[in-house]
Amino acid sequence: MRTVTIRAELDKALAQLPRPVALVPTMGALHAGHAALIAAARRTAATVVVSIFVNPRQFANAADVARYPRTLESDQQLAEAAGAHLIFAPSVDEIYPPNEPLTSVEPGPLASRLEGASRPGHFTGVATVVSRLFDLVRPNEAYFGAKDAQQVRVVEWLTAQRTDHIKIHRVATVRDGDGLALSSRNQMLSAAGRAAAARAIPVALSLIAEAYASGVTSVAMLRALAERVLAAEPSLSLDYLDFADGATLVQLSENAQIGDAAPGEVLVSLAAVVDGVRLIDAITLP
Questions:
Q1: Helix 32-42 and helix 72-82: axis angle, to 10°?
Q2: What are the b/e assignments for 159-186, b being 16+ CB within 10 Å?
Q3: Does 70 lie in the same domain as 114?
Q4: pLDDT, tens digit, for every residue of 58-95?
Q5: Residue 276's domain spans which residues?
Q6: Confidence of residue 263 (pLDDT cuts 50, 70, 90)
Q7: Core-most of 23, 99, 185, 258, by most CB within 10 Å?
Q8: How far apart are CA 97 and CA 204, in angstroms?
Q9: Which of 171, 203, 227 is the endpoint of a domain?
Q10: 195 lies in the same domain as 155
């Protein structure tokens, strides 16, 4: 496995590697969830490229960018063990050259709600960097985690506007033993915050899934079950608990019955803040 940091090195390395190429875009601080993405990519592609880039355009402020964990050495070890062939770890100036005009990429209609509403400009930053990485790596396919459900839908929409026919794969969320979805942001939690998040977020979503499986289809009833668990953790601040059509991300009304309101999958997504760290998670019904 090689690590390259500039576009010229990336082009040279890609010219020597077989196709098809799969891209796994990351912001580093890799964990077992990323390893699952890399392993899935290995099953369909001859070459797996992992990008490691903390994208400043998708953060609210410079302090959040500076706080994000950077662990390149351990990232390289995990990526190699998982089967990656190439790491692209560019600087900000390499992705956004100061002497080159770069137009922001609009993220489309699926970006207006949920994270898009809570974090203005976030998905414009995501769409811009993903487009940039697609242009530089020229992958045949790309892999994203299902935990970031809205992001995957935005990327799918974005990819459909392009002419290079990149196939987008979703990989199931990987969870720790306590049920908490793996996330690079988990490193920023205190021990108490981590325990509180694990007691609340995955438990609330599991209650929804279990109740739905037992026949409860009322959005209001399912929400009440989950919010009771979330409210029991005073250190957790809930931003949203949302029920939406999985394809369009149109919100379901409180008096809706799942199955009647959305003919396909229903996306249940949650965002909460613990220890000043924003955590997201999601499941689908059925």
A1: 40
A2: beeeeeebebbbbebbbbeeebbbbbbb
A3: yes
A4: 998 888 899 999 999 999 999 999 999 999 999 999 99
A5: 184-285
A6: confident
A7: 23
A8: 44
A9: 171
A10: no
User: How many angstroms separate the CA atoms of 43 and 45, rounded?
Assistant: 6
Same domain, residue pair 199 and 109: no
- Residue 146 carries which side chain, given as an amino acid letter? A
Helix (H), strand (E) at residue 11: helix 7-15
pLDDT at 154: 98
Q: Are residues 17 and 125 in the same domain?
A: yes
**Residues 145, 280 share a domain:** no
Q: How confident is the model at residue 39 (pLDDT cuts 50, 70, 90)?
A: very high
What is the pTM for the complete model shown? 0.95
The pLDDT score that the predictor gives to residue 22 is 98
Residue 176 domain-assigned (yes or no):
no
Q: Residue 44 class from Cβ within 10 Å (0-12 exposed, 13-18 middle, 19+ buried)? A: middle
Q: 41 and 16: one domain?
A: yes
* CATH at 264: 3.30.1300.10
Q: Catalytic: 169?
A: no
* SS3 category, 268: strand
| Neighbouring C-beta atoms of residue 218, cutoff 10 Å | 15
Shared domain for 76 and 163, answered yes or no, is yes
**Residue 140: per-residue pLDDT:** 98
Judged against a pLDDT cut of 90, whether residue 286 lies above it is answered with no
One domain for residues 194 and 143: no
Residue 141: alpha-carbon gap to chain centroid? 16
| Cα–Cα dist 13/227, whole Å | 50
User: How many Å is the maximal CA-CA distance in the chain?
Assistant: 59
Domain count, the chain: 2
